[in-house]
Design a protein that fits this description.
The chain is α/β, with parallel strands linked by helices and 290 residues long. Helix content is 49%, strand content 13%. It is built from twelve helices and eight strands. Strand 5, helix 8 and strand 6 form a beta-alpha-beta unit.
């Protein structure tokens, strides 16, 4: 399946719905288009699970190139990073050094870094990296996954930091003892964590395409007397673009996660598994091209 999707001319136009392209300039162009419609970007270099120092250094260099392009093009975007790309799995100290440099460079060009959350086995170390860098870079944003049973406790341990969090549902396959499996349980946890972040966090990012969860965030902000610009709504490239535009037109801060790079297959598969509508779109598009 991977070979077919990666190599077939039939699938490339469909993949382009969810991935800006193989190259940085593809993502820059996509973000420029988003900016023209009042939507910010989140620049995401695809790839994870680097296993050697040279690979981690290469990823860090690519991120630095991306930050330089932000300065050159003046696009409105943040930079999302995956810590396993930067060596978290084998050298946490070196990973922290990479993130520190990226955060400093991002700050210098007027933006900031967002740290993705990966599989559950990396949650502890990812939070540890965030904690280590928060005193110098309080503008760092950390993704937290609502479907993990531990997330509420993890947030409590960071309460004194007033963490800046991107709240996602979670897209990795995790066992039931680690993660909620039922949609109603995940949604209930998501709402509870949304309330926690508005009350005890900083500038929460509600990363969801579910209008009910977005409406819940709006209601929480209204209840607390907060303005529309007190939080962000974040969505994925290619998913519900009309809703993104409507929210931006209504005065909400909206950012779109724009992935690019050749390592797009695992990302695409997670998007298919995460939302049945995405898989239906993919299959319909393939059928229409045969």
């Amino acid at each position: 399946m991977q070979n077919f999707i990666s190599q077939s001319k039939l699938t490339r136009p469909v993949v382009a719905r969810f991935v800006a392209g193989d190259h940085l300039e593809d993502a820059v162009n996509a973000i420029q288009d988003l900016n023209s419609r009042g939507i910010g970007g989140i620049l995401d270099l695809l790839g994870e699970g680097v296993t050697d120092p040279d690979g981690a250094q290469g990823a860090a260099d690519e991120y630095l190139t991306s930050i330089k392009r932000i300065e050159e093009t003046k696009i409105d975007t943040t930079v999302s990073i995956k810590l396993t790309q930067l060596g978290l799995a084998f050298d946490k100290g070196s990973c922290i050094d990479h993130v520190r440099r990226l955060a400093a460079e991002a700050r210098a060009v007027g933006t900031y870094v967002e740290i993705d959350m990966e599989q559950s086995e990396y949650v502890f170390d990812t939070i540890d990296v965030y904690r280590a860098l928060h005193p110098d870079f309080p503008d760092l944003r950390l993704a937290m996954q609502a479907y993990l049973r531990r997330t509420a406790v993890d947030l409590e341990t960071m309460a004194t930091l007033k963490p800046k969090v991107r709240l996602v549902k979670g897209a990795y396959a995790e066992p039931e003892e680690i993660a909620f499996q039922k949609k109603n349980e995940i949604d209930a946890q998501y709402k509870f964590l949304t309330e926690w972040l508005f009350e005890r966090g900083t500038m929460p990012a509600i990363a969801s395409h579910d209008e009910r969860l977005i409406d819940h965030a709006k209601a929480v902000a209204l209840h607390l007397g907060l303005d529309k610009d007190s939080f962000e709504v974040q969505m994925l490239y290619g998913i519900r673009p009309q809703l993104q535009e409507k929210l931006a037109a209504d005065g909400y801060k909206v950012r779109t996660y724009v992935p690019f790079g050749s390592a797009w297959y695992p990302y695409l598969m997670r998007r298919m598994a995460e939302r049945p509508a995405n898989l239906k779109f993919f299959l319909r598009a393939l059928a229409s091209r045969n």
